[in-house]
């Protein structure tokens, strides 16, 4: 039951699962700011990106893990958790804030595309809820998040007070503690995983593969999230879910597609609507 009070209503989600240490720490900070509802996967869902559950039922059950906290576990993905929370718990009356995390492991640079933590926050932003994803550079199940709490509280207070531009959310990453130098507003670094697939053999002599790799930074700028984290700062990157490469539209309009004049129209001149259909494939 969502409380009717002057305090903000806050949705807390994650991808590491409802019993993760990170979500417990995030929930504790949010309790200082408002009325908290926690909805999280019933098992770890790291690397799920913006996946949703189609073609099979989703289980969604109320649980009691911490006294006085409204909590639900979900058999679906982190994005499913946000969708169900908005639809079934808040019933269309959107929460004032959606926070995701604290993730066990960084979601800086290109990792934002793979992250279930960030995808849950993106889904909150799609629902026009001010949203933030929080991650920290420690994969340990018993990671110490204590040094992040004052920063999380301050960042959330600022978002509640000032709001976020529609279509924008925040990606916040923390170095491993205990000492932090402060906050840096950053851009996403140009970096990626140099991946390898370690080939192994099961007891039946059949090959299987284990994804490994090294994270390589190609970006030497001092205004990036990778630089900030490497130098002991909390990184904040404003993120948008409009993936249009607007700068490329003019170039594409100059290409010769071998079609009759008028057959190729830019996005800026052609209007589309829901009547054109939706394809989730």
Walk me through the structure.
With 281 residues, this protein is α/β, with parallel strands linked by helices. 22% of the residues lie in helices and 26% in strands. It is built from seven helices and eleven strands. The strands form two sheets. It has a nine-stranded mixed sheet with strand order 3-4-2-1-5-6-7-11-8, with helices on both faces. A two-stranded antiparallel ribbon has the order 9-10. It starts with 8 loop residues before the first strand and ends in a 28-residue tail after the last helix. The model is unreliable at 272-279 (pLDDT under 50).
Write a compact overview of the structure shown:
The protein is an alpha/beta fold and 281 residues long. The protein has helices at residues 21-31, 78-89, 111-114, 116-126, 149-162, 225-230, 249-253; strands at residues 9-13, 35-41, 60-63, 70-74, 97-104, 131-136, 168-174, 183-185, 191-201, 207-217, 234-240. It has 7 helices and 11 strands.
User: DSSP helix count?
Assistant: 7
Q: Give the fraction of residues assigned to helices.
A: 10-25%
The major pleated sheet works out as:
9 strands, mixed
What's the alpha carbon Rg, rounded to whole Å? 21 Å
H/E element sequence: EHEEEHEHHEHEEEEHEH
Order of neighbouring strands in the sheet with most strands: 3-4-2-1-5-6-7-11-8
* Low-pLDDT sequence parts: 272-279
Q: How much strand? A: 25-35%
Note the gap between the termini. Answer: 35 Å
Structural class: alpha/beta
What tags apply to this protein structure?
281 residues, two-stranded antiparallel sheet, globular, alpha/beta, nine-stranded mixed sheet, 11 strands
């Amino acid at each position: 039951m969502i409380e009717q009070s002057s305090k903000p209503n806050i949705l807390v989600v994650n991808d590491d699962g409802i019993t993760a240490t990170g979500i417990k720490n995030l929930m504790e900070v949010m309790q200082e700011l408002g009325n908290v509802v926690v909805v999280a996967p019933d098992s770890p869902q790291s690397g799920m990106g913006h996946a949703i559950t189609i073609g099979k039922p989703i289980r969604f059950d109320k649980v009691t893990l911490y006294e006085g906290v409204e909590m639900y576990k979900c058999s679906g993905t982190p994005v499913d958790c946000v969708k169900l929370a908005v639809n079934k718990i808040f019933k269309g009356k959107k929460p004032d804030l959606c926070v995701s995390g604290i993730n066990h492991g960084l979601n800086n640079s290109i990792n934002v595309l793979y992250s279930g933590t960030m995808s849950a926050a993106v889904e909150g932003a799609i629902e026009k809820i001010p949203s933030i994803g929080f991650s920290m550079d420690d994969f340990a199940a018993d990671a110490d998040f204590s040094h992040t709490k004052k920063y999380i509280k301050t960042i959330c207070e600022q978002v509640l007070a000032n709001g976020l531009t529609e279509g924008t959310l925040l990606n916040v990453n923390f170095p491993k503690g205990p000492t932090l130098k402060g906050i840096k507003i950053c851009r996403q670094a140009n970096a990626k995983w140099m991946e390898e697939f370690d080939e192994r053999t099961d007891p039946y002599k059949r090959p299987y593969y284990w994804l490994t790799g090294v994270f390589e930074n190609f970006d030497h700028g001092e205004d990036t999230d990778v630089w900030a984290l490497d130098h002991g700062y909390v990184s904040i990157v404003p993120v948008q879910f409009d993936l249009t490469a607007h700068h490329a539209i003019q170039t594409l309009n100059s290409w010769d597609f071998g079609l009759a004049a008028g057959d190729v129209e830019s996005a800026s001149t052609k209007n589309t609507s829901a009547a054109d259909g939706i394809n989730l494939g």
